[in-house]
Write a structure and sequence with these properties.
Rossmann fold, seven-stranded parallel sheet, six-stranded parallel sheet, 13 strands, globular, binds uridine-diphosphate-N-acetylglucosamine, binds uridine-5'-diphosphate
Length: 356
């Protein structure tokens, strides 16, 4: 076997496993790809389930770093990732999204003069109170190549004078969804979870929605006013708040464990509306033509709002429940996120970064 250039893909959180899986499949045909899992997400249903279901190769390293504040967590990732990168001397490092794992990976690669790609670059909420905003701004500065999902993200990078290293590849989550849709549709998710009749699907995990118990209680109470079955796979951050702060759950809201990707996509496909503060789920809602109500003051995925399929809602608004009930978009859609994105990324790597 001829020597293949070595790529180190660095992941740690649920959405990063979902972004990694379509790319890893194509990279491995041409490169020696190795995977580092920082350990940021560690529950079986937040991590192993994704590796098994999506047939992602077992990580070559799991650094087991998950507790502590932002500084402690990111700092320990820097220390441990430096050891792996120094020993492995990869030709290229790839980081995804906007978590602490992303920042640690991009910063380490820059300090060690290893070329790096930031996938999902250029997104901005312009809200510096979000840890994700700090992580993505810093990762875009540190990385050598920016793989950009949308035109808005390209425009953001141009305004920051970063366009010279930007490549408009499209959004890798298009491929993730495409690869599993058929299989997901065959799952008996609703039967298994004993869900019958119409329902809305809810996820919440942003610190500004769930870390303040009063805010979390307000959101759930307001959603209870809808008098509609709401299925709520609960993120561990939110689960911890609900149990530690004794949050009361309205009768219409059904708490379930975080679901695997196939079951979750099936829940999205069969629900009436999606209520969320997640980034990835806003995109999936758009692609699957589901009305999406985003419980946030702003979004990075502005095109989905402009096209009328996503609406920002504020639980402090007295018309919150009414706005959700009345939101029934029917308009057309545009090609926001691209197609065959893993292939586009591979071609960009082969042409501009690392001939295989
Ligand atoms: C992280 C990312 C966020 C991303 C989200 C995806 C940062 C700063 N935040 O947020 O950008 O949108 O992942 O889901 O990187 N926990 C468990 N079990 C797990 C995972 C987490 O108990 O499997 C607990 C942690 O111990 C911690 C809390 O949940 O107490 C939050 O986890 P953390 O990874 O710090 O942030 P997320 O809210 O998951
Ligand atoms: N997801 C999942 N199971 C769940 C909830 C979400 O598989 O119970 C998937 C969802 O389909 C999407 C991704 O997780 O692809 C979004 O991750 P998350 O909301 O944790 O993070 P964000 O996208 O906001 O960074």
């Amino acid at each position: 076997m001829p020597h293949q250039p070595k790529i180190l893909s660095i992941v740690g959180a649920r959405p990063q496993f979902i972004k990694l899986f379509p790319l890893s499949r194509v990279l491995r045909k041409h490169y020696d790809e190795k995977i580092v899992h920082t350990g940021q997400h560690f529950d079986e249903e937040m991590s192993d389930l994704f590796f098994n279901e999506l047939e992602i190769p077992e990580p070559d390293w799991n650094l087991g770093i998950n507790r502590g504040g932002h500084g402690g967590q990111t700092g320990r990732m820097l220390i441990e990732l430096e050891k792996v990168m120094t020993e492995q001397q990869p030709d290229l490092v790839i980081v995804f999204g906007d978590t602490n794992t992303t920042l640690a990976g991009a910063l380490n690669a820059a300090k060690l003069h290893i070329p790096s790609i930031h996938i999902e670059a250029g997104l901005r909420s312009f809200n510096r109170s979000m840890p994700e905003e700090i992580n993505r701004v810093m990762a875009d500065q540190a990385a050598d190549y920016l793989f950009v999902p949308t035109q808005t993200a390209m425009d953001n990078l141009r305004k920051e004078a970063l366009e010279a290293k930007a490549h408009h590849t499209g959004d890798i989550m298009v491929d993730s969804l495409e690869l599993i849709t058929e299989k997901a549709q065959k799952r008996n998710t609703l039967e298994r979870l004993d869900i019958s009749g119409d329902y809305h699907l809810l996820t919440l995990h942003r610190p500004y929605n769930v870390d303040d118990p009063e805010k979390l209680q307000l959101i759930l109470n307001k959603l209870g006013e809808l008098n509609k079955t709401i299925v709520f796979p609960v993120h561990p951050r939110t689960r911890n708040m609900i149990s530690n702060k004794n949050i009361q759950i309205p009768d219409s809201i059904r708490l379930i464990k975080p679901q695997g990707y196939l079951d979750f996509i099936n829940l999205e496909a069969r629900c009436q509306k999606i209520l969320t503060d997640s980034g990835g789920i806003q995109k999936e809602a758009y692609i699957q033509k589901k009305p999406c109500l985003t419980i946030r003051p702003e979004t990075e995925w502005v095109e989905t709002v402009h096209d009328g399929w996503n609406m920002l809602v504020d639980p402090g608004d007295e018309n919150f429940a009414r706005k959700i009930s009345r939101f029934n978009p029917t308009g057309g859609q545009s090609d926001i996120f691209g197609r065959n994105v893993a292939d586009a990324m591979l071609a960009t790597i082969q042409k501009n970064i690392l001939p295989s």
